[in-house]
Design a protein that fits this description.
heterodimer, A: mainly alpha, 70% helix, globular
Protein backbone atom coordinates (compact mmCIF):
# COMPACT_ATOMS: atom_id res chain seq x y z
CA UNK A 1 0.00 0.00 0.00
CA UNK A 2 2.77 2.38 0.98
CA UNK A 3 4.46 1.48 -2.25
CA UNK A 4 1.36 2.47 -4.23
CA UNK A 5 1.04 5.80 -2.44
CA UNK A 6 4.65 6.51 -3.22
CA UNK A 7 4.13 5.70 -6.92
CA UNK A 8 1.13 8.02 -6.89
CA UNK A 9 2.96 10.95 -5.31
CA UNK A 10 5.95 10.36 -7.50
CA UNK A 11 4.10 10.35 -10.79
CA UNK A 12 1.80 13.27 -9.96
CA UNK A 13 4.44 15.61 -8.57
CA UNK A 14 8.12 14.65 -8.55
CA UNK A 15 8.31 12.68 -11.78
CA UNK A 16 5.48 14.53 -13.49
CA UNK A 17 5.22 12.93 -16.91
CA UNK A 18 5.00 16.30 -18.62
CA UNK A 19 7.29 18.54 -16.62
CA UNK A 20 10.01 16.07 -15.71
CA UNK A 21 9.91 13.69 -18.69
CA UNK A 22 8.57 16.08 -21.35
CA UNK A 23 5.94 13.67 -22.63
CA UNK A 24 2.85 14.99 -24.36
CA UNK A 25 4.35 18.39 -25.11
CA UNK A 26 2.72 18.82 -28.51
CA UNK A 27 -0.86 18.71 -27.29
CA UNK A 28 0.17 20.52 -24.11
CA UNK A 29 1.31 23.53 -26.13
CA UNK A 30 -1.48 23.37 -28.69
CA UNK A 31 -4.47 23.02 -26.36
CA UNK A 32 -3.40 25.03 -23.32
CA UNK A 33 -4.45 28.49 -24.50
CA UNK A 34 -7.98 28.11 -23.11
CA UNK A 35 -9.21 26.64 -19.87
CA UNK A 36 -12.17 24.56 -21.02
CA UNK A 37 -10.52 22.43 -23.69
CA UNK A 38 -7.51 22.02 -21.39
CA UNK A 39 -9.68 20.50 -18.67
CA UNK A 40 -11.43 18.29 -21.24
CA UNK A 41 -8.16 17.02 -22.69
CA UNK A 42 -6.79 16.49 -19.19
CA UNK A 43 -9.70 14.24 -18.26
CA UNK A 44 -9.47 12.39 -21.57
CA UNK A 45 -5.76 11.70 -21.09
CA UNK A 46 -6.29 10.50 -17.52
CA UNK A 47 -9.12 8.25 -18.64
CA UNK A 48 -7.20 6.73 -21.56
CA UNK A 49 -3.99 6.34 -19.53
CA UNK A 50 -5.75 4.45 -16.74
CA UNK A 51 -7.06 1.97 -19.29
CA UNK A 52 -4.11 1.62 -21.66
CA UNK A 53 -1.36 1.20 -19.06
CA UNK A 54 -2.90 -1.94 -17.48
CA UNK A 55 -4.02 -3.23 -20.91
CA UNK A 56 -0.48 -2.95 -22.21
CA UNK A 57 0.78 -4.58 -19.02
CA UNK A 58 -1.37 -7.62 -19.78
CA UNK A 59 -0.27 -7.68 -23.41
CA UNK A 60 3.38 -7.38 -22.48
CA UNK A 61 3.41 -9.97 -19.72
CA UNK A 62 1.29 -12.58 -21.49
CA UNK A 63 2.51 -12.17 -25.07
CA UNK A 64 5.72 -10.23 -25.49
CA UNK A 65 8.07 -10.52 -22.51
CA UNK A 66 10.89 -13.08 -22.70
CA UNK A 67 9.33 -16.42 -21.82
CA UNK A 68 5.80 -14.99 -21.72
CA UNK A 69 4.55 -17.43 -24.31
CA UNK A 70 5.24 -20.39 -22.01
CA UNK A 71 1.48 -20.92 -21.65
CA UNK A 72 1.36 -21.60 -25.39
CA UNK A 73 4.21 -24.09 -25.16
CA UNK A 74 6.87 -21.69 -26.49
CA UNK A 75 9.00 -20.83 -23.42
CA UNK A 76 12.03 -19.72 -25.47
CA UNK A 77 10.31 -17.08 -27.58
CA UNK A 78 11.18 -13.45 -26.83
CA UNK A 79 8.98 -10.97 -28.67
CA UNK A 80 9.84 -7.94 -26.54
CA UNK A 81 11.31 -6.12 -29.55
CA UNK A 82 7.77 -5.92 -30.94
CA UNK A 83 6.57 -3.86 -28.01
CA UNK A 84 6.60 -0.50 -29.80
CA UNK A 85 4.37 -1.56 -32.63
CA UNK A 86 2.03 -3.67 -30.48
CA UNK A 87 1.63 -0.97 -27.82
CA UNK A 88 0.78 1.69 -30.35
CA UNK A 89 -1.72 -0.66 -32.00
CA UNK A 90 -3.33 -1.48 -28.64
CA UNK A 91 -3.56 2.21 -27.79
CA UNK A 92 -5.07 3.13 -31.15
CA UNK A 93 -7.59 0.28 -30.89
CA UNK A 94 -8.61 1.17 -27.33
CA UNK A 95 -9.02 4.84 -28.20
CA UNK A 96 -11.14 3.95 -31.20
CA UNK A 97 -13.29 1.55 -29.18
CA UNK A 98 -13.69 4.06 -26.34
CA UNK A 99 -14.83 6.68 -28.79
CA UNK A 100 -17.56 4.39 -30.11
CA UNK A 101 -18.64 3.20 -26.64
CA UNK A 102 -18.83 6.72 -25.22
CA UNK A 103 -20.70 7.94 -28.27
CA UNK A 104 -23.26 5.15 -27.86
CA UNK A 105 -23.82 5.25 -24.09
CA UNK A 106 -22.99 8.72 -22.89
CA UNK A 107 -23.57 11.54 -25.39
CA UNK A 108 -22.77 14.28 -22.83
CA UNK A 109 -19.40 12.71 -22.08
CA UNK A 110 -18.84 12.31 -25.81
CA UNK A 111 -19.54 16.00 -26.30
CA UNK A 112 -16.94 16.79 -23.67
CA UNK A 113 -14.19 14.34 -24.58
CA UNK A 114 -15.05 13.25 -28.14
CA UNK A 115 -12.94 15.71 -30.08
CA UNK A 116 -9.87 14.92 -28.01
CA UNK A 117 -9.89 11.17 -28.29
CA UNK A 118 -8.40 10.88 -31.81
CA UNK A 119 -5.68 13.35 -30.79
CA UNK A 120 -4.76 11.15 -27.88
CA UNK A 121 -3.81 8.10 -29.92
CA UNK A 122 -0.64 9.85 -31.04
CA UNK A 123 0.04 11.64 -27.76
CA UNK A 124 3.47 10.53 -26.62
CA UNK A 125 2.42 10.58 -22.96
CA UNK A 126 0.24 7.52 -23.55
CA UNK A 127 2.88 5.44 -25.30
CA UNK A 128 5.54 6.80 -22.95
CA UNK A 129 3.65 5.65 -19.85
CA UNK A 130 3.36 2.13 -21.26
CA UNK A 131 7.07 2.04 -22.06
CA UNK A 132 8.02 3.40 -18.62
CA UNK A 133 5.84 0.74 -17.05
CA UNK A 134 7.85 -1.97 -18.80
CA UNK A 135 11.16 -0.34 -18.04
CA UNK A 136 10.42 0.12 -14.34
CA UNK A 137 9.07 -3.39 -14.00
CA UNK A 138 5.78 -2.53 -12.32
CA UNK A 139 3.34 -5.28 -11.39
CA UNK A 140 -0.30 -5.15 -12.47
CA UNK A 141 -1.69 -3.11 -9.56
CA UNK A 142 1.26 -0.73 -9.71
CA UNK A 143 0.68 -0.21 -13.42
CA UNK A 144 -2.96 0.73 -12.77
CA UNK A 145 -1.92 3.29 -10.16
CA UNK A 146 0.92 4.52 -12.34
CA UNK A 147 -1.35 5.02 -15.37
CA UNK A 148 -4.02 6.91 -13.46
CA UNK A 149 -1.64 9.09 -11.49
CA UNK A 150 0.45 9.98 -14.55
CA UNK A 151 -2.77 11.14 -16.17
CA UNK A 152 -3.64 13.22 -13.12
CA UNK A 153 -0.19 14.76 -13.14
CA UNK A 154 -0.51 15.61 -16.80
CA UNK A 155 -3.92 17.16 -16.23
CA UNK A 156 -2.60 19.21 -13.33
CA UNK A 157 0.17 20.58 -15.54
CA UNK A 158 -2.03 21.46 -18.52
CA UNK A 159 -4.75 23.07 -16.39
CA UNK A 160 -2.20 25.20 -14.55
CA UNK A 161 -0.64 26.18 -17.85
CA UNK A 162 -4.02 27.16 -19.30
CA UNK A 163 -4.67 29.35 -16.26
CA UNK A 164 -1.33 31.09 -16.62
CA UNK A 165 -1.74 31.60 -20.35
CA UNK A 166 -5.14 33.19 -19.86
CA UNK A 167 -3.57 35.76 -17.59
CA UNK A 168 -0.69 36.15 -20.02
CA UNK A 169 -2.95 37.82 -22.58
CA UNK A 170 -2.69 40.99 -20.54
CA UNK A 171 1.09 40.83 -20.33
CA UNK A 172 3.49 42.67 -22.61
CA UNK A 173 5.70 39.95 -24.02
CA UNK A 174 8.65 40.97 -26.25
CA UNK A 175 7.92 40.19 -29.91
CA UNK A 176 9.77 37.07 -30.98
CA UNK A 177 9.27 35.56 -27.57
CA UNK A 178 5.49 35.56 -28.04
CA UNK A 179 3.71 32.24 -28.37
CA UNK A 180 6.04 29.27 -28.31
CA UNK A 181 9.03 30.93 -26.65
CA UNK A 182 7.22 32.31 -23.64
CA UNK A 183 5.22 29.09 -23.21
CA UNK A 184 8.45 27.15 -22.92
CA UNK A 185 9.82 29.54 -20.34
CA UNK A 186 6.59 29.34 -18.31
CA UNK A 187 6.78 25.55 -18.51
CA UNK A 188 10.36 25.82 -17.24
CA UNK A 189 9.27 27.87 -14.23
CA UNK A 190 6.44 25.40 -13.55
CA UNK A 191 8.87 22.51 -13.75
CA UNK A 192 11.04 24.29 -11.23
CA UNK A 193 8.07 24.64 -8.88
CA UNK A 194 7.24 20.96 -9.24
CA UNK A 195 10.83 20.05 -8.45
CA UNK A 196 10.34 21.39 -4.95
CA UNK A 197 8.37 18.22 -4.26
CA UNK A 198 11.42 16.08 -4.89
CA UNK A 199 12.57 16.47 -1.30
CA UNK A 200 9.48 14.62 -0.08
CA UNK A 201 10.07 10.98 0.71
CA UNK A 202 7.57 8.56 2.12
CA UNK B 1 20.26 26.65 -63.55
CA UNK B 2 22.04 27.40 -60.33
CA UNK B 3 21.86 24.71 -57.72
CA UNK B 4 20.31 27.05 -55.16
CA UNK B 5 17.30 27.54 -57.44
CA UNK B 6 16.35 23.89 -57.91
CA UNK B 7 13.31 22.47 -56.21
CA UNK B 8 15.31 19.72 -54.57
CA UNK B 9 17.62 22.28 -52.99
CA UNK B 10 14.69 24.20 -51.59
CA UNK B 11 13.02 21.07 -50.26
CA UNK B 12 16.22 20.14 -48.52
CA UNK B 13 17.23 23.46 -47.01
CA UNK B 14 13.99 25.25 -46.05
CA UNK B 15 13.29 23.00 -43.04
CA UNK B 16 16.82 23.39 -41.72
CA UNK B 17 16.39 27.05 -40.95
CA UNK B 18 13.32 28.88 -42.22
CA UNK B 19 10.56 26.49 -41.30
CA UNK B 20 12.46 24.44 -38.78
CA UNK B 21 10.21 21.63 -37.53
CA UNK B 22 10.97 22.24 -33.86
CA UNK B 23 11.20 25.99 -33.49
CA UNK B 24 9.12 27.03 -36.49
CA UNK B 25 6.32 24.50 -36.53
CA UNK B 26 6.46 23.41 -32.87
CA UNK B 27 6.63 19.70 -33.61
CA UNK B 28 8.51 16.97 -31.84
CA UNK B 29 9.47 18.84 -28.72
CA UNK B 30 9.22 15.98 -26.22
CA UNK B 31 12.41 14.32 -27.26
CA UNK B 32 14.15 17.59 -28.06
CA UNK B 33 14.02 18.35 -24.36
CA UNK B 34 14.57 14.97 -22.83
CA UNK B 35 17.74 13.74 -24.50
CA UNK B 36 19.73 16.97 -24.46
CA UNK B 37 21.51 16.66 -21.13
CA UNK B 38 24.56 15.38 -22.97
CA UNK B 39 25.82 16.06 -26.47
CA UNK B 40 26.47 12.38 -27.12
CA UNK B 41 22.90 11.23 -26.55
CA UNK B 42 21.56 14.20 -28.49
CA UNK B 43 23.63 13.27 -31.54
CA UNK B 44 22.65 9.62 -31.42
CA UNK B 45 19.00 10.60 -31.06
CA UNK B 46 19.29 13.01 -34.00
CA UNK B 47 20.78 10.30 -36.18
CA UNK B 48 18.05 7.84 -35.22
CA UNK B 49 15.31 10.36 -35.93
CA UNK B 50 16.80 11.50 -39.24
CA UNK B 51 17.10 7.88 -40.33
CA UNK B 52 13.51 7.06 -39.42
CA UNK B 53 12.16 10.27 -40.94
CA UNK B 54 14.05 9.91 -44.23
CA UNK B 55 13.04 6.31 -44.79
CA UNK B 56 9.47 6.67 -43.58
CA UNK B 57 9.01 9.57 -45.99
CA UNK B 58 10.63 7.57 -48.77
CA UNK B 59 8.64 4.40 -48.29
CA UNK B 60 5.32 6.14 -47.70
CA UNK B 61 5.90 8.16 -50.82
CA UNK B 62 6.61 4.98 -52.80
CA UNK B 63 3.28 3.57 -51.63
CA UNK B 64 1.34 6.81 -51.84
CA UNK B 65 -0.83 5.69 -54.75
CA UNK B 66 -1.60 2.33 -53.17
CA UNK B 67 -2.63 3.42 -49.66
CA UNK B 68 -6.42 3.75 -49.30
CA UNK B 69 -7.26 7.12 -47.76
CA UNK B 70 -9.31 5.75 -44.87
CA UNK B 71 -6.59 3.61 -43.36
CA UNK B 72 -3.60 5.79 -44.20
CA UNK B 73 -2.83 6.66 -40.58
CA UNK B 74 -2.51 3.05 -39.52
CA UNK B 75 -0.34 2.28 -42.57
CA UNK B 76 1.91 5.22 -41.74
CA UNK B 77 2.17 4.16 -38.13
CA UNK B 78 3.12 0.63 -39.16
CA UNK B 79 5.88 1.87 -41.46
CA UNK B 80 7.20 4.26 -38.81
CA UNK B 81 7.04 1.71 -35.99
CA UNK B 82 8.91 -0.85 -38.08
CA UNK B 83 11.71 1.62 -38.79
CA UNK B 84 11.85 2.61 -35.12
CA UNK B 85 12.16 -1.03 -34.04
CA UNK B 86 14.99 -1.37 -36.53
CA UNK B 87 16.78 1.73 -35.19
CA UNK B 88 16.26 0.58 -31.60
CA UNK B 89 17.70 -2.87 -32.24
CA UNK B 90 20.75 -1.40 -34.01
CA UNK B 91 21.36 0.95 -31.07
CA UNK B 92 20.98 -1.88 -28.58
CA UNK B 93 23.47 -3.99 -30.52
CA UNK B 94 26.18 -1.41 -31.13
CA UNK B 95 25.71 1.44 -28.65
CA UNK B 96 24.24 -0.30 -25.63
CA UNK B 97 25.20 2.34 -23.03
CA UNK B 98 23.71 5.19 -25.00
CA UNK B 99 20.58 3.21 -25.77
CA UNK B 100 20.17 2.65 -22.01
CA UNK B 101 20.49 6.39 -21.42
CA UNK B 102 18.00 7.23 -24.13
CA UNK B 103 15.68 4.72 -22.43
CA UNK B 104 12.17 5.07 -23.79
CA UNK B 105 12.84 8.03 -26.02
CA UNK B 106 13.91 5.98 -29.01
CA UNK B 107 10.54 4.21 -28.85
CA UNK B 108 8.81 7.54 -28.61
CA UNK B 109 10.08 8.47 -32.08
CA UNK B 110 6.92 6.66 -33.21
CA UNK B 111 4.70 9.33 -31.74
CA UNK B 112 7.02 12.19 -32.65
CA UNK B 113 4.74 14.58 -34.50
CA UNK B 114 7.45 15.55 -37.01
CA UNK B 115 7.36 12.12 -38.61
CA UNK B 116 3.58 11.80 -38.85
CA UNK B 117 3.39 15.43 -39.90
CA UNK B 118 5.84 15.06 -42.78
CA UNK B 119 4.25 11.82 -43.92
CA UNK B 120 0.81 13.43 -43.96
CA UNK B 121 1.71 16.77 -45.49
CA UNK B 122 4.60 15.90 -47.76
CA UNK B 123 5.21 12.25 -48.53
CA UNK B 124 1.60 11.49 -49.44
CA UNK B 125 1.67 14.00 -52.27
CA UNK B 126 5.21 14.02 -53.61
CA UNK B 127 7.57 11.66 -55.46
CA UNK B 128 10.00 9.44 -53.50
CA UNK B 129 13.24 11.30 -54.18
CA UNK B 130 11.91 14.68 -53.06
CA UNK B 131 10.29 13.05 -50.03
CA UNK B 132 13.60 11.48 -49.08
CA UNK B 133 15.27 14.90 -49.29
CA UNK B 134 12.44 16.49 -47.32
CA UNK B 135 12.89 13.82 -44.66
CA UNK B 136 16.63 14.35 -44.39
CA UNK B 137 16.18 18.13 -44.39
CA UNK B 138 13.64 18.05 -41.59
CA UNK B 139 15.76 15.56 -39.70
CA UNK B 140 18.73 17.91 -39.91
CA UNK B 141 16.58 20.85 -38.84
CA UNK B 142 15.56 18.87 -35.77
CA UNK B 143 19.15 17.79 -35.16
CA UNK B 144 20.37 21.36 -35.35
CA UNK B 145 18.07 22.46 -32.50
CA UNK B 146 18.79 19.33 -30.49
CA UNK B 147 22.56 19.74 -30.77
CA UNK B 148 22.45 23.45 -29.95
CA UNK B 149 20.38 22.81 -26.83
CA UNK B 150 22.66 19.93 -25.85
CA UNK B 151 25.81 22.03 -26.25
CA UNK B 152 24.36 24.78 -24.05
CA UNK B 153 23.15 22.33 -21.41
CA UNK B 154 26.27 20.19 -21.22
CA UNK B 155 28.66 23.16 -21.34
CA UNK B 156 26.88 25.21 -18.69
CA UNK B 157 25.61 22.31 -16.65
CA UNK B 158 28.67 20.11 -16.43
CA UNK B 159 31.48 22.16 -18.01
CA UNK B 160 32.03 19.38 -20.51
CA UNK B 161 31.47 18.53 -24.16
CA UNK B 162 31.22 14.88 -25.24
CA UNK B 163 32.19 14.05 -21.65
CA UNK B 164 35.54 15.92 -21.87
CA UNK B 165 36.13 18.85 -19.59
CA UNK B 166 36.17 22.09 -21.56
CA UNK B 167 36.08 24.74 -18.86
CA UNK B 168 39.67 25.03 -17.54
CA UNK B 169 40.45 24.19 -13.91
CA UNK B 170 41.82 27.70 -13.40
CA UNK B 171 38.32 29.07 -13.85
CA UNK B 172 36.96 26.75 -11.18
CA UNK B 173 39.83 27.80 -8.93
CA UNK B 174 38.74 31.43 -9.02
CA UNK B 175 35.20 30.50 -8.05
CA UNK B 176 33.35 29.52 -11.25
CA UNK B 177 30.64 26.94 -10.58
CA UNK B 178 28.72 24.61 -12.85
CA UNK B 179 25.12 25.60 -13.31
CA UNK B 180 23.40 22.52 -11.94
CA UNK B 181 20.08 23.97 -13.01
CA UNK B 182 20.85 23.31 -16.69
CA UNK B 183 21.09 19.56 -16.15
CA UNK B 184 17.60 19.41 -14.67
CA UNK B 185 14.32 19.50 -16.54
CA UNK B 186 13.52 23.23 -16.15
CA UNK B 187 16.87 24.14 -17.73
CA UNK B 188 15.79 22.41 -20.93
CA UNK B 189 12.54 24.35 -21.17
CA UNK B 190 14.19 27.67 -20.60
CA UNK B 191 17.14 26.98 -22.93
CA UNK B 192 14.84 26.04 -25.79
CA UNK B 193 12.60 29.05 -25.14
CA UNK B 194 15.57 31.38 -25.41
CA UNK B 195 16.89 29.68 -28.56
CA UNK B 196 13.54 30.12 -30.26
CA UNK B 197 13.54 33.77 -29.28
CA UNK B 198 16.99 34.22 -30.80
CA UNK B 199 16.08 32.38 -33.97
CA UNK B 200 12.87 34.35 -34.48
CA UNK B 201 14.60 37.66 -33.92
CA UNK B 202 17.47 36.82 -36.25
CA UNK B 203 15.32 35.50 -39.08
CA UNK B 204 13.01 38.53 -38.95
CA UNK B 205 15.80 40.91 -39.80
Amino acid sequence: MENLVSIFINSVFVGNILLAYFLGMCSFLAISSNMEPAVGLGFAVTFVLSITAPANWLVYHYLLAPGALAWAGLPLVDLSFLKFIIFIAVIAAIVQALEMIIDRYSPPLYMALGVFLPLIAVNCAILGASLFMVERDYNFIESVVFGASSGIGWMLAIVTMAGIRQKLRYADVPSGLEGFGISMIIAGLMAMAFMLFSGITL
Amino acid sequence: MKITRTKAFKVFFTPIWESNPVSGQILGICSALAVTVQLKTAIVMSLALTFVLAFSNFSISLMRNLIPRNIRIIVELTVIATLVIFADQVLKAFLYDISKQLSIFVGLIITNCIIMGRAETYALGNPPFLSLLDGIGNGLGYSQILITVAIIRELLGAGKLFGFQVIPDALYAIGYKNMGFMVLAPGAFIAIGLIVWLQKTVSKE
